[in-house]
Amino acid sequence: MPELPEVEVVRRGLEPRTVGRTVEAVELLDARIIRRQAGGVDRLRAALLGTTLTAVVRRGKFLWWRLADADGADTGEALMGHLGMSGQLRIATADGTALAPRAPSEGPASDPLRHRRLSLHLDGGTRVDLIDQRLFGGLWTSPLVEAADGALAAMGSPDGLLPTDAAHVARDLLDPAVDLPGIARALRARRSGVKSLLLNQQLVSGIGNIYADEALWMARTRFDTPGIALSQRRALAILRAAQDVMERALEVGGTSFDALYVNVDGRSGYFARSLNAYGRTGQACPRCGATIRREMIQNRSSHFCPRCQRPRAHITS
Question: Known catalytic residue: 195?
Answer without folding.
Answer: no
